[in-house]
Design goal:
The protein has 9 helices and 7 strands. The protein is an alpha/beta fold. The protein has one domain: NAD(P)-binding Rossmann-like Domain (Rossmann fold, 3-Layer(aba) Sandwich), CATH 3.40.50. Helix 1 crosses helix 7, helix 3 packs parallel to helix 4 and helix 4 packs parallel to helix 5. It is globular and about 50 Å long.
Length: 256
Amino acid sequence: MTRPRALITGASSGLGRGYTLSLAADQYDLVLVARDEARLQELARSIETEHGTLAEVVVADLSTRSGIDVVRTVIETSRVDLLINNAGYGLKQSLLESEVSDLVDQDMVLTGAVRELSLAAVKQMRNRGRGGLINVSSMAALTTMGQYAAAKMSTLVFTEALAGELRGSPVTVTAVLPGFIRTRFHERLGVERPGPGWIWLSVAQVVAASLRDARGGKVVSIPGVSYRMAARIARFVPRPLVRWGSNGFSLNRRDG
């Protein structure tokens, strides 16, 4: 029997690597997408050795037109049973300190690539009569914390709209809203990890909860009981208070 096949963007580290290892253990063949070819090749060899599944490497920069086109071509010309749009990054500077070109590149990765790859994938899945899409948004979507939050809100609304159009079809569509995860995300930004230790979830926790929710057909997955409670409360918080809280929770950037 043919094994299911998943394509994961941002697969070489953090949450993307977590999805990769979990699906490999579940006997998925994989298409691993990221910019770092050496890390992708190392991960692919490890998966094929340990799990005996196939791991194809696709090197692509999703902030570029050519990078998106490369991945879209894979989706349109081969079977992808599950697409996980996970690639993303934050900017070290605030909005006023950021170059417009940097904001455009970030928006291309967080919204443009997600939109194009999602549409390409679900059209193929609908025609085949099966498939799943997971778009990684963020709890930041419920805040006003800069362009990152704006892009993640766009991903959330886009995914919910797509799920509405596919209602009643065999294709599942899920937006995942992780809170703080123990990855190198904040280290790369050069910021201190905010908040108490209990708010931090492991990659394994987020991966397990979101895959379970996606397989159950949930449109929105929020891993972690405390984060689910926060999301429910956020719906009733006045926007001025959201803005005040977002500004008060700004990241503490380290010098250098």
